[in-house]
Every structure is written in structure tokens, then in C-alpha cells.
Amino acid sequence: MAWPLAILVVTPILAAVGSLLASERRAVEALQCVQAGAMLASALLVVERVIAGGALSASTLLQTDALSAWLDLIIGVVGSTGTLYAVGYMGEEMTRGHLTMRRYCRFFCLFDLYMAAMLTAVNQDNIAIMWIAIEGSTLSAALLIGFERSKAALEAGWKFVILSSVGIALALFGTILIYYSSEHVLGVSSEALRWSQLYLVAERLHPSAIKIAFIFALIGYGTKAGVAPMHTWLPDAHAEAPTPVSAMLSANMLTLAVYAILRFKIITDRTVGPDFAGTLVVGLGLLSLTIAATFFLVQRDFKRLFAYSSIEHIGIALLGFGLGGAGIFAGAWHLLNHALAKSTAFYGAGLVFLAHEHKFLDRVTGLLVHMPLSGTAILVAGLALAGLPPFGLFASEVLIAVRAYAVRPEIAGVFLLLLALAFATLLYQVFRMLLGTPGEPGRPLSKPCRLFAWAAVGINVAVLGAIGVTVPPGLTSLLDAIVRLFNTTMEMP
Amino acid sequence: MSLLTPHVGSQLVDLGSAVLLLICFAIVAQRRLSACVDLFALQSVFLAATAALVAFLTGIHHIYAAALLTLIIKAIVIPRILRKVIERLNVTRELVMNVNVPAGLLICGGLVMLAFFITQPIIPLGFLLTRDSLAIALAIVLIGFFTMIARKKAVTQVIGFLVMENGVFLGAAAAAYGMPLIVELGVFFDVLVGALIIGIYTHRLQDAFDSVDTGRLTTLKE
User: Fold this and answer.
1) Which of A136, A274, A445, B168 is the most buried (most CB within 10 A)?
2) pTM of the predicted structure, to 2 decimals
3) Average pLDDT for B184-191
4) Contact of A253 with A141, CB cutoff 8 Å
């Protein structure tokens, strides 16, 4: 039975409709809490069943394999804490009169639709329907980014909608090229668009067509993943969106776009071998890492700082995936830990923004003393994002460096150098906020807001700490299954 | 049917695709916003006709549905939304562009050659009937992309995006004999909602900045 899968995808849609119809704040809050709980529980159930059975399908439309389950885990855990956090954050905005009840309801409707689109995209066997769902998540995200309707928010939203529309159109062209090549092998039917079928016949697909398709998909979905040099929308969108949305963009949407690239990479690897796609992905990964590491120091806005850190970590994950073998294991592990750490960082940053109503890094000091909750959140997330043990990002970065050393030592050298630079500059900026004499105290936050933020940060930090020390055995087998999808093994060359 | 031998059919599909490409050049050369919208609507009509022709020649019926949707959504609904947006704006012509018209046309000529060059190795893979459409489709995608870069007004950037979509759709209908129907429906839904959202954004930009000149969007810089 695959009912958890159905629940996972359908509840956000129901919650979206419910939020739109609701007329009372309490009702929306209760609905969103239920939605967060249902999402977490059903995602974990799906993951458990995939670990036990290898795959799960609810119909021809909803199918889950190891890689999908991994994304379910990320979106399920981070999405549910994000929903809780959003309840507190948007509630506080409404208490302060920045938001009418109607817009409050509309926010949660969009937020849930965004989750539903992402969950549909990952639990999908059809490459074109995945495109449709990813486009759906782009469109809802576009409205969420410009939600506050300030000039800056509109500018950020406009940049996002234009750049990702271009990206997504290129990705659709890549999808059509896959179909163009596969319909000669699988016939003119939906079968020619299904991953599971494509993987089986990959060796018989036309190599040039698959290569061109991969380049289109990489540029297209790469734009949405914020990969340099297509990253220019990302810092603006993350800085200007309401903070719960920034957290979800970073933790879920970028991960989702990387997932789409991986799906194309699996086909490409099976058709033309891992070197073609690997080289391109490694190149873009290193470029993203370079750009992010050099931009940390000039940031004056703390949300932009964390946005650049997302570019860095997506780059690191891509580097891992590009290197293949154990790098794929590390890349997937990196995505999960990054999602947890980055959303925690944004949860902390959002509280600071609510208290001070500005985002200037220079004017925020001594957070650990006068805002213990957000101070702790930013401290833990900052240490994790800088790649310090005992957090999972340390393990994955070491693994990627080892893998890089085995494949091409010069890549390992460049990688470690950039990591050191990013480590120093990110921590310098973060500690400037955390330490020092506490500045202006800012506006106090209402109790419900603090409570929801506590819950969100607490769950994230607990999971981050728990999986930082050891990889749970169930997840190891899931990661092994992901590595096998790429037709390679964990062994070092 | 006797008149439409595969050879003639293939020529007709090529002709349709070539007209689409020609309209792209006209859009690049056109400064008046409303004329750009009209040209886009015209391009969509030809796209629908080409798709219907492919459906007729191959006997694959669901391409008819896609052609009909193109006609309704891209030739009627979206141009109507765009005209409404333009009516509200205080500009009708685009005077300053990032790339001027003659240079733009030259670049587009280069892009067409690039598209043929890229698709060279995979053209023989295609169906005999619609072989060359894939290269033309890619050329249209690239020109649409270029239009988005070359123009400053939000409305023309939207048209650039829609032209890209038309190119992708030509690729799907002609080169790949159409995607499965459920996919077509989903894609059309997304394009329609996308156009609506971009329309909403244009309104709000006009209200907030008193202009749809995206060159004025300069608050967010490093």
C-alpha cells in the first residue's frame, strides 16, 4: 500500500484550499499545524517504506524511488518546520498590522501550493510532468517572493520570475530532446517520458541528442538552483522574500532543482558515460563556490549573507555529484544537512528582522546575549554551514575532498582552498552578529511567535545534531541505492 | 490526399516553421509595443496552423488538441492580457534598447546559424516529415532569449519569453510529434498562469516605480 505517498502529496493541496476559505486566524493556525504534522509523518513513512521495499507507487502518476525518497525526507522535515515557523512569523506580521486577514490566508494558500508542487515534482516517474510541477513551484514562489509588495520585493520577484521562466523554458526544450530521442526506442507514448523506462534503454538512446538535452537541462534547472553564473536572482529573492519563504527557497527549491539536474545526469551517465555530465557539473559547482566565497565579505545584509552561503553549498553538492562514486553519496548527504542548517539560519535571521525591522549586518551585535533563541540558531547553523564537526556538512565536505583527490588532485586543492576562504569569511560575518556589546534591543516578539520559532529551530537543530554524529543505517542503504542509480559504486578508483 | 505526398507535406511544414522564424525577426525589429503583441499573436496562429498540419499529415489526433489550445491561449487570451497591460502604461514605443535594431537583427542571424550548428548531429534522428523543424525551433528559442536580453521594457521581455515558449512548442509538435496530451495540457496551464503572474507583476511594477522600464530596477545591487 502506498497511502503515505498519496497523503504526502494531497494534504498540502487540501490545506491550501482550507486556508483560502478560512475566516479566522486560529483556524488557519490549526490547519497549518495539522498540515506540518501530516507532511512530516507521511514523508517519514514513505522513506521507511522505500528503504524496506526499494520503491513505492500509488498509481502511474505518483512513483517514488530512492532518490525521490531522499527529497521527500528533505522536503518533509524542513517543509514541516518551515510551515510551523511561517505560522509564527506571519502571525506576528499580522499582529503588527502589516498584513490583513485576507492576505494572511492567501499567503498560506500559496505556501501550501508551493509545497504540493514540490512534492508532486519529486514523486514522479514522468519527466515532463516533473517539469510541469517544478514550473508550478516556480510560479507560486514568484508570488511569495513579491508578497510584501515593497519596491525591493517587486524587483526581486520580477528578476526571479523572468530568470526562472527563461531557465524553465530551456529545461522544457531539454525534456523534449529526451523525448525526441527516446520515442524511437520506446514508441510515441508516455512510456518514452518515464525515468524508469528511460534508465533501462539508456544505452540505446542517441548520444548526441542526450548530450544536448543535458546541457539544456543543466542551464535551465541550474538557473533555478542558483548555480553561478545564473545565480543573480538568488540573493535578491532570498533577501526580499518573507523569511519563512527565504528559508524554504534555500532548503527546498534549490534542492529540488538539483534533483531535476540529477535525473537528467543519471540518463546521460547511462548513455554516454559519467565523464561528459560530470565535467560540466564539476565546473559549474566550482564556479558557484568561488563566487559565493568571494562575496561573503562584502555583504551588508544578513539575509543576503545566508543566500550566498546557499550558492556555496549547492556548488559543493554539485561538485560531489559531478565527481561520481562516493561523491554522489556525499552530495546527497550534503543536500540534506544544508537544508536543515540553512533553514535554521533563516529562522534565526527572521526573528532578528522582526525585532529590528532592518537587515543591516553592521547594526546587529551581541545576538547571543539579547536574543538567545535566534542567537543560538544562527550560531549552530553558522558552525554547521562553515563545515565544522560534529555536523554532517563536515563529513560530506571531507568525503568530497577525498573523492576529488582520488579523481583529480588539483580539484581537491582548489576545493580546499575555497572552503578555507568561505569558512573564514562566513564565520567572521556570523560572529560579528553574535558577539560584541548588545545594541538596540528591538521590538519584543509576541509569545506565539517565539513558541513556533522555538519548535521549528528545536526540531531542525535536534535532527541536525542527531544525524551529524552518525549516518543512521536506514539512510545509508537509501544513499547506496541512490549511488547505484547512477550506475556506479562507492568504491574509490 | 494525393496532392500531399510526404515530400510536399515536409515542404509545407518547413514553410510553416520558416514563417514562424521570420516573424521572430519582425519582433526584434519592431519598436512599438502593441505591434509586438500583434506579431506574437500572428506567430501563434501560424504555430497552431503548423501543428494542425503535422497532425493531419501524421494522423496523430492529440496534436489537433494542442493546436486548438495554442490558438485559444496564445493567439487570443494572452495577447488580450498583454494589450490590457499596455493600455495602462504610459509608453507605446521603446526608444532605448540595450542592443539597437540592426545589430539585433545581425545577432539573430548568427543565432539561427548557431541553432543549425547545434542540432546538426541529431537532425538525421528525426522523422522524415519534420526534420528541419527542430533547428528552426531552437533558433526561435534563442531569438526569444535574445529579445529578453536586448529589450528593457517589461512587456517586451514577456513577449521574448512567450516567443521562447512558441519555439519550444514547435520543437515538441513538429520534431517530436507532440507530447502526450496530459503533458500538453499541463504545459499550457503553466504558460497561461505564468503569463497572468507576469502580467500582475507588470501592474505592480508600474504602480511602485511608475514605469515598466526594467532598467530602473536598481535598488538591489552588491
Assistant:
1) B168
2) 0.94
3) 84
4) yes
Minimum distance, in Å, between the CA of residue B128 and any CA atom of chain A: 13
A180–B157: do the CB atoms touch at under 8 Å? no
Q: Is A132 an 8 Å CB contact of chain B?
A: yes
CA distance readout (Å), A390 to A383, A396, A428? 9, 11, 20
The whole-number pLDDT of residue A490 equals 66
Instruction: Please tell me the total count of domains within chain A.
Output: 1
Contact at CB, A142 and B161, closer than 8 angstroms:
no
Question: Is residue A490 a part of any domain in this protein?
Answer: no
| Whole-Å CA distances, B59 to A176, B56, B63 | 20, 5, 9
As a whole number of angstroms, the distance between CA B205 and CA B213 comes to 9
* Set of cell numbers at residue A402: 577525498
Residue A491 resides in a domain: no
- Give the residue numbers spanning the domain of A29: 3-485
* Single-letter code of the amino acid located at B94: E
A129 contacts B182? CB cut-off 8 A: yes
Average pLDDT, chain B: 85
The pLDDT value recorded for residue B1 is 47
Which residues in chain B are contacts of A177 at CB distance < 8 A? 122, 171
Domain-embedded: residue A391: yes
Residue A387 has a pLDDT of 92
Contact A181 B125 (CB under 8 A): yes
| Residue A477 is assigned to a structural domain of this protein | yes
Task: Give the nearest partner residue to B180 out of A172, A177, A189, using CB atoms.
Answer: A189
- Section B80-97 average pLDDT: 79
What is the radius of gyration, based on Cα positions, of chain B?
18
Q: How far apart are CA B188 and CA B75, in angstroms?
A: 13
Q: Note whether A87 contacts B: Cβ–Cβ < 8 A.
A: no
Along chain A (493 residues), what's the average pLDDT of each consecutive run of 10 residues? 86 94 92 95 94 82 90 96 96 92 94 96 92 93 91 90 90 91 82 87 90 95 92 93 95 96 94 92 95 91 94 96 92 96 96 90 87 93 93 94 93 95 94 85 87 95 89 89 84 50
A239 contacts chain B (CB < 8 A): yes
Point out the residue among B182, B190, B198 whose CB comes nearest to the CB of A136: B190
* Residue A493, pLDDT score: 43
DSSP B148-181: HHH--BHHHHHHHHHHHHHHHHHIIIIISS---H
- Which three cell numbers mark A174? 531539454
Residue B178, all three cell numbers:
507532440
Torsion of the alpha carbons at A384, A78, A97 and A95, rounded to the nearest 10: -90
